[in-house]
Amino acid sequence: MGLRACLPTCLLQAVKGRFNTNPIIKKIQHILQAQSLEKWLEWGRLTTITSIAQIGVQAIGFICGILIIRVLPTEEYALYTLANTMLGTMTILADGGILAGVMAEGGKVWQDKSKLGAVINTGIQLRNRFAIVSLLITTPILIYLLHHHGASWITSILIILALIPAFYTALSGRILEIVPKLHQDIVPLQKIQIWSNFGRLGLLTLTIFVFPWAYIAILAAGLPQIWANMQLRKQAKKFSDTQQKKAEAVQARIVALVKRMMPDAIYHVISGQIMIWLISIFGSTENLAQIGALARFAALLAVVQAVLGVLVVPHFAKIQANKKASIRLFLLLQLGLVFLTLMMSLFVWYFPQLILSILGPQYSDLSFELLLVILSACIALQSTTVYHISSSVGIVPSPIWLITYMLTIQIGLLFVFDFSLLHQVILYSMCINAAILIYHTTYFLRELMR
Questions:
Q1: In which domain, by residue range, is 135 found?
Q2: Which of 21, 153, 442, 444 is deepest in the core (most CB within 10 A)?
Q3: Alpha-carbon distance 10 to 19, whole Å?
Q4: Is the overall model pTM greater than 0.90, yes or no?
């Protein structure tokens, strides 16, 4: 084999034989064991693949967002921002904790195709029921806000009709993704996401220059997800029996978790997009377009969120019985997110005009607001990560105490900030995100230690 090929074997034999009494050598020996090395190499491979793919997905999404910002008139982009925010609200209400319940239940039976298939189908059926209720609640609110910002009846109806494909496909798509995530079948999943985003970019490029309207941009985002869901169902069949009927026992446990999480989800509907809601009510249409444009940069953090959602959250669901490993991984993750916040904030602090030039000249005077948006988004990312990790292992705080705690803070802050000013609204949102992060982190660690 040659001298170079023999060196690793010789070194390993030396470690095992001649120097096995040295504690440092023993540690090296442990690291060099095939199983341990293979495990770390596999995690490195998955992290690299996921990160590269998500960078590609988010890069395409970012290009789509900048294209929409630059092509749509300010009034149309304000309506687009409002509709997209309501889409997030509709999705949260239609979920109510079902996704977390499916992840927790799937983590228990992920190696059994029949049981995993029953869990997935149970979750999809529950979400379909919740979707109808979500539409009935949110549609009148969206119509009112669209009219408040100058949309006609025809425009409002077209925007709502354009939202429906994106809404329904997002519901089933996120549940179907749980199967490959639990089995770490990452590459096919990333390919589906990349091609779906390319489809969105293609539809936008073909339509938005000719029809620069908000509902066209929304429809272009929703239609490619139909194709993505068809591919996700094929991928799910490799690891689960998709013909299984819903399991009543699984449904009972998911519903029990939903009952515990639903009040918290409803509260997050209001507080999670507090900047948009406050500006929609108290601010101008121009302010609404500005916050929507700045939020595009915050959306780049979705790369990190996606990597964590694909690798870390499912891993927590599978190692939930190992308390020591769970705490260690959780603390390392939080330190990494704090470091990410510092790096992003410093970059925005030194190069604000470079970043804002991407949006166009109408947003060039928003340097301070951009920094605040990035800080708020980083804190929100950390809070959301803790929430998803906690719910994936069935640790959900009492909604009564959480909502009481947060409402006390929010009501107190109402007397501090002026909501007609953009930067004041962003500061208000940042304080709320920080308070939620403190609560979720404290509760999760306390319950995990028990």
A1: 50-449
A2: 444
A3: 13
A4: no
